[in-house]
């Protein structure tokens, strides 16, 4: 085996090892992130309802997020749920405001027709 072939084989082995190490490191970092998120939600479940409402979540939301699989970060699930709820609330407020505005416009045209 020539020295070039041997160097090439060693490089391929080293790059495979580096790739494996990177994947293992990424997996461990994900598990650590999930553990920390789960731990923070466990302290959050002990908060009073007013504090949870200020954050934009309910106690049921926290319980739901804690039921996530072990390798999944429950705090990110809770964040997604809270953002979705705020978006839905905002959309409902905009729809109600548009409905009120349309109702006022209809009443104004009714008054104009009567005059």
Q: How many strands?
A: 0
How do the SSEs run, as a string of H and E?
Answer: HHHH
Task: Describe the largest sheet.
Answer: none
Helix-strand category = mainly alpha
Instruction: Specify the helix fraction band.
Output: over 70%
Q: Mean pLDDT, as a whole number?
A: 79
Total separate domains: 1
Question: Low-confidence segments, ≥5 residues, pLDDT <50?
Answer: none
Straight-line N-to-C gap? 103 Å
Please give the count of helices: 4
Outline, from the CA principal axes?
elongated
What is the multimeric organization of the chains shown? single chain
Can you walk me through this structure?
With 115 residues, the protein is an all-alpha fold. It has one domain. Helix content is 85%, strand content 0%. It has four helices and no strands. The longest helix has 42 residues, at 3-44. It is elongated.
Which features does this protein show?
4 helices, mainly alpha, 115 residues
Summary, kept brief:
The protein has helices at residues 3-44, 49-55, 59-66, 74-114. The protein has 115 residues and is mainly alpha-helical.
């Amino acid at each position: 085996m020539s020295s070039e072939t041997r160097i090439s084989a060693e490089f391929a082995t080293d790059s495979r090892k580096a790739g494996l190490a990177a994947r293992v490191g990424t997996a461990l970092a994900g598990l650590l992130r999930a553990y920390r998120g789960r731990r923070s939600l466990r302290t959050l479940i002990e908060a009073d309802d007013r504090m949870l409402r200020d954050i934009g979540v309910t106690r049921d939301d926290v319980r739901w997020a804690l039921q996530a699989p072990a390798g999944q970060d429950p705090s990110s699930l809770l964040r997604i749920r809270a953002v979705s709820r705020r978006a839905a609330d905002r959309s409902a407020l905009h729809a109600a405001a548009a409905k009120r505005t349309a109702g006022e416009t209809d009443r104004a045209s009714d008054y104009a027709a009567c005059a």
